[in-house]
Structures are given as structure tokens and as C-alpha cells.
């Protein structure tokens, strides 16, 4: 991946005017003091590797694991403390969940209401079916201003559509102004967290990135957080004051007033949203809330869940254009990009309730070990695992995104912290079932194993025979009494864990020895007398006449 | 009380000491325990791996096995597993209904209301925390994700453990973190699973405990498999085994007596 001025470029990208802002090292991506382990993907929602493949690589990065363990545990503790002090937190979560469910059930009408209100207040609304359309709309809008530079507020949705890269191809330089996003951009890296995109970096790496790529970093820069922040501040100030065009995402859009909201911590957003002449906001259609009053719920939920703050430092709200105050031209690009497809799944659509707080990432034991890049999407972590495959859909059996719903132990920590109560474990299971059902008809090892297990476990006689057959494990275990090494795929277990051999006596055999003789319960007696060959035929007392097996 | 035991497939076949201890404990407390022998499995593995259609016949067998509880045959159903209880309570009916089997789903739902994980049965239904157990060993408790967050047993297992005579109960650092098992996750994402297991084992070792206990033998199979690989000298034991242990009939803790090692122990005799 080549870079120019620290920006990712694509083949055929036009050369940007060199104003000395981000002198990078063209032709290389990693600098001397930081690792570069993720090449820029062609598709921001499908980077190429499956989750297990990418996770394996990430797990080998000791720096990443240490950074993540420290960062996630710190933010987990902060969140727990500020959430714990809200007595009606559960009621707030219920309210957030209910409002979002309402939005999804009435999305077309609410979107038109938003469009009417934005338009009435001097804004211009654009509709984009997919990333390419959105990028084209934004590019054309910037070109119409005659500008070749834009400043950006941190935004997940513009990451999702690869806007910076699309603009660069058209000779427009997009400057990220959020500190962490700046770090990611300077390092020619990809974000690895929804809220803290450079969470995989420690401050020593950040110092190296600034010295190598920022251009105007003080040569005696240390890795003290304050010094790093001040260097970025000085670097960005000139951009804020000179930029004529800003691009933002939106945390919320209020249908009944046409108001947009951006919630942030650094003040860079406020600068971008107020100083330039033209403001272009790109938002996913699911970011809608029905009324202005609904904001009170989400403003209570979001900062505490996200940064672990009672209230974030900067909340900017704007409605259309106000003459003489702020940007005099406002464009709102409403992006679908797979959201309608997700909405069509009445279980899966709950993923669209997400307000991008990232609490689920911070508590996820999988995310904590592998980091964001392993998910192969700008949306990582538990929410990414349910959102990404729904936005992209599956291109077929080899689609790496098929592996995402399995990137979880279903431990449930994500559901517990979600401010809008998205039942992510249930969604993961639902998406697994969807994938299995789509793939039916093709023989797979997993499918065969599951069918066999189903056959065995549907009848006690078969199960008992299987238990007896399990005696073979005692041969495998030998005199050790434990199985320490199995061939593939069993090696996936025994590489790191022993497996006990099956005991000589199963529980049911023990029960038969100890209890069946004295069993007085007629049902117990009758059932225990069933032949162990197990009755392929349903027993006579089956009263439920529904068909067994693969009814669908 | 007349209590039907759902032993769980994994404990029936691999870890019979858990349901056995459950029977001994409940009988000691004066209850009648029944083991409906038609039972096999609750269907959890199929459901969590996405094989809903294959889960239906397994769930059907479970529901038909325990349906007499709805006619008053048994007062309650006990499961020595948090995740199987969770699957019975939160997945069985959903999977049946998704397959269009409304009646089966409704029966599953009714049965789920009479089904309890062991610590729930003891504390909530039988109203007992001191079960008269004696277990003079250093023990740490891993809460397991589904006990903690799916069926929310809270501190019930700890209430029971604290009341055990002679026990030296030590808190497990990072207790609420998943051990990395996750059913088929341990195979599909074995490297990530191992990374999680490694941290769990470090925490277990840091307690100096002889025994790590939990309400689920599936998680214990994972943690114990890792501890055995390391020759750590720490063994796993189901909550029921500790609660079943008494002065006159103590549960042995030596690793030689661990599950699956009976052949060697016998050979040595």
C-alpha cells in the first residue's frame, strides 16, 4: 500500500498539492517505531481474511495485546463507576431500546419527516443507496466549492464508505481532526475501535508516528500525553482556521425538528461544525430519533457508556442553516448501504439500534485479546460481528464475513452493558442459524457432525450406545487417563488442553445400578426398560403428533 | 420434594461425578430424586452452533422426557449446569417456534418454568444455604458466563460455598471474564480461546487454590483441560461435588482421583 502525505492512496490517485502538512514516507507504511500489521483494505467492511486467520495474527502481536488489555480494563472500570451512580439506568436502557425499536418500525415515514424539516430550515438532503453513491455525492459537493482540502470530524460512517480514499482519488485531501483518528491517518493505519480508533497504539508509538509523519512535530517531543496532545493541537489549528469545507457524521438526527447532533470530547468537532462555510454530514439512516425530547434519553446513555463520563465535553446541535452564524451551506447525505437489507430481518434489525458507544468492545473478552483489526471491518467487536455481515450480506461460501458471527463465546458481557439493550448473543446465534440455513445442501464437516449428533441425541438408546462407544477414549488416553494429543481437528483442542477419557461408568449406568432396582416410579421403570437399541420408532406414549426432524 | 434430574449429556457421559453428587446431596437433604432415563441432551450445542433444525428432535426428546412434570409427576427439574438451564429457559421455545412447532414450544416454555439450576433449586426453591457439607480445602469459584449473565444465579453458589464447613474460599481475580470455552468456539477459534484460557488459568493459579469449582462441567472441562496440560496440580470440581462432600463421605481432591483417571487409579490398586 503506497501512501502520499500520510494518506492512503489507490492506484491512479491524483497527486495532491504538497503543502508540507503531512510529510510521510511515500512507498512505505510502517515507520521505525511502530508496527504496521494491517494493509489498507479495498472494502472497509470486508478486509479479506476470515476472523480466525486475522485473530491468529493479532494474537501474536504482544504490543497490541498489552495495549488493549490496559486500555479496555481502564475504560471498563470508568464506565462501571459512572453507570453505577445512575439509579434508573435500567429504565433508561429500556427507554433507549423502545425508542430505537419504534424508529425501525417507522423508518420510511420518519426519514421523510427529517428530510422535510432539514429542507425547510435551509439544508439540502441527498439520498445514497450505497458507498459509491455517497462518495460521489460528497465529492461533487466538495468540487462545487472549488476546494481541495476538507477537515473531518471523526465519523464511523465515512470510514464505512471509504470516503477519504475516494476523495483522495479526486485530488481532495481530507484531514482527520480527532486526535486518535489523526494518529490512525498519519500512520496509514486502520481504526481498531469504534470510539478510540488508535486504541492499539501506545504513547511511544504515537510519538514515533508524530515525529515521522506530522511534519511540524517538535523535534524534542516526548511521549507525555499532554505533549502529544499539544503537538496535535498546534498541527490542527491551522487547518481549522483555513478550511472552507467540513465533513462530519452524526450521532443523532431528530426527525421532528431536522436537528443534527454530534457528541465529542476534544472540541475539534465544534471547530469543524462551526468555522467552515460548507458542512457536509453523512449519516446512516438508522441514526434517526423521532423527537427532540428523545435526545434526553440518549444523552444520558451515550457518554456514560462510551467514554465513562457523566457528560461529554462538547455536544453540538444544529438545524439547517442559520444566516450569519456557522456554515452557510449544509448538506445531509442519508446513507443506506445495506441498512434496508438488515431492516428486513426482524431479529437481525436490532443491530441497527446501535448508537456506536463501543461499550460492548470494551467488555468483550474476545476483542480484548485480538483487537479490532481481526474483525476485518471498520465495525469491530461484538456489534461489528452482528452488524458487518448484515450490512454486506454474504457473497457466498467463501465470504470471510461468514466467520464473524462465530467470533464470540456468547459470554453475554456485551448485552449487559449495551445502553440500548441489543441482545448481541442472541443475534449472533440467529446469524449463525441464518448462515447454516443458507448453506444447506452443501456437505460440510460441521454439518455432518451436527446431523450425526442430532441423530444420536434424539433417542436415549442411541445416546447410550454412543456412550459405550466412548470407551475408545480410554484406549486413546492409555495409562495416562487423559488424552493429550489428537490428530486434526481434535488437535485444535488438545494443542492447549488435555481431554479426559470417558469414565468406565456413565451416570446412567451408575443410576441403573444404584437406583433402578428400587425404583418405584412407574414412568422411570418403563423408560428404563426401553431397549438400548433405542427405538428408531417413536415410543407409544408420544402424544405430540408434530413431525420430528427436519421440518422446514 | 420430588425432583427430576436432567443430568446433561456431557456430565452423563464424561463427568458422571456431577449428577451423582447432585443425587447424593438432594437425597441427603431428604428429597426424592428421579432420573427419567429417556433423557439425552437439551440441544444447546446445536442451537449455539446455528443448527436449529437439528436441535428440534433433541429438544423434542428433552421436552417429552420431562413433560410429566407438568402433570405433577415431579415438583421441579434440576440441572447441574448453568448453560443447559439457560438454553432450556431462553432457547428451546424460540427454536421450536422458529421451526413452526408451536405446541412443542409452548410445552418447552412451561417446563422451563419448572426447571432450576442446582444453586437456584437449593437457595430459591428449597430455601437452604447450609447443606451440611464439609470440605476442608482451598477453593476458588469461577462463576461461568451463562450462570452469571444468562440465568443470573448471582451469588447463590457463593452463599452455598461460604456455608461449607472447613472450606477456605478465595476470590478469583477477573472471575467474571469468560474462560474462552464457548462450545464450538474452542475449536472454530481455538487460538483466541486459548488466549482467554491462559489468562483464566493465571488467575486460578494466583489464588493458590487446590480446587477451582463452577456450576458447569463444560467450562470446567476447558479450564481443567488447560490446568492438566500444565501439570498445575489444581483440579476442577463441580459445585455439587463440594456440597455433597461430608465428614463421613468426603469428596477426594487429589488429581489422581480426577475425572477420567479411574482406570489408572484402579490399575494402581
From TrEMBL, chain A:
The yes or no answer to whether the keyword Membrane is present is no
Q: Cite the residue spans of the region called Disordered.
A: 1-44, 510-552
Using the record's annotation, list all stretches that form the Lactate utilization protein B C-terminal domain.
Answer: 438-514
Keywords of the record, alphabetical order, are:
4Fe-4S, Electron transport, Iron, Iron-sulfur, Metal-binding, Repeat, Transport
Tell me which residues make up the 4Fe-4S ferredoxin-type domain.
Answer: 351-422
Q: Which InterPro entries match?
A: 4Fe4S_Fe-S-bd (IPR017896), FTHF_cligase-like_sf (IPR024185), Helical_ferredxn (IPR009051), LUD_dom (IPR003741), LutB/LldF (IPR004452), LutB_C (IPR024569), NagB/RpiA_transferase-like (IPR037171)
Domain LUD span(s) in chain numbering: 111-334
Q: Where is the composition biased (Basic and acidic residues)?
A: 510-530, 541-552
Query: What Pfam families does the entry give?
Result: Fer4_8 (PF13183), LUD_dom (PF02589), LutB_C (PF11870)
Q: What is the protein name stated in its UniProt record?
A: Iron-sulfur cluster-binding protein
Taxonomy of the source species: Bacteria, Bacillati, Actinomycetota, Actinomycetes, Micrococcales
From TrEMBL, chain B:
Going by the entry's taxonomy, the superkingdom of the source organism is recorded as Bacteria
Q: Where is the Cysteine-rich domain?
A: 6-88, 139-223
Q: What is the organism of origin for this protein?
A: Oerskovia merdavium
Which InterPro entries did the record assign? Cys_rich_dom (IPR004017)
Q: Region Disordered: start and end of each range?
A: 250-269
Bias-annotated ranges (Basic and acidic residues) = 259-269
Q: What is the lineage of its organism?
A: Bacteria, Bacillati, Actinomycetota, Actinomycetes, Micrococcales
Q: Name one Pfam family in it.
A: CCG
Q: What is the designated name of this protein?
A: (Fe-S)-binding protein
